[in-house]
Amino acid sequence: VQLQACGGGLVQTGGSLRLSCAASGSTGSGYTWGYGMGWFRQAPGKEREFVAHIDGRGGGTVYGDSVKGRFTISRDGTKNTIYLQMMSLKPEDTAVYYCVALDRMYWIGSTPGHYDYWGQGTEVTVSS
Asked: Quick check: 12 and 88 in contact, CB under 8 A?
């Protein structure tokens, strides 16, 4: 699976951004669509942090505590693309955001090791 994320940029505190991630290819188990996908982020000097996940079927979602109520993850199944709508952005949201994918349909955990595929990241900077 290849993951291509885009949509990052510079925004002021309180602003919004929408990230997107297009997936292509198949997983090791043969999924060509309908696999779970999500987002992590990594700020300078910090560990990677789970942001959000969406299941490949059924639309079930999971969010990290720091983004609940402000970020919304969604997917367009026909395009194998996911989106992360980020609202009420704060300086602490500044990070490189990574699109990730599972070799299965449903969420199994929120640590980086649970995800099988990683994109190259898109940078989000929130100015104060």
From this structure: no
Per-residue pLDDT at 51: 98
Is the pLDDT at 78 greater than 90? The verdict is no
Q: Are 51 and 64 spatial neighbours (Cβ–Cβ below 8 Å)?
A: yes
**The tokens 């640590």 sit on which residue?**
111
Q: In angstroms, how far is CA 110 from the centroid of its own chain?
A: 12
Q: Which long-range contacts (CB under 8 A, 24 or more apart) does 72-77 make?
A: 73/38, 73/39, 75/37, 77/33, 77/34
Q: How confident is the model at residue 77 (pLDDT cuts 50, 70, 90)?
A: confident
What does the pLDDT average to over 97-122?
A: 96
3-state secondary structure of 113: helix
| Separation of alpha carbons 63 and 95, rounded Å | 17
The confidence score (pLDDT) of residue 109 equals 94
What's the one-letter identity of residue 42? Answer: Q
User: Tokens representing 48?
Assistant: 């990677």
**The Cα angle at residue 115 between residues 125 and 60, in degrees rounded to 5:** 85
Query: Residue written as tokens 């602003």?
Result: 15
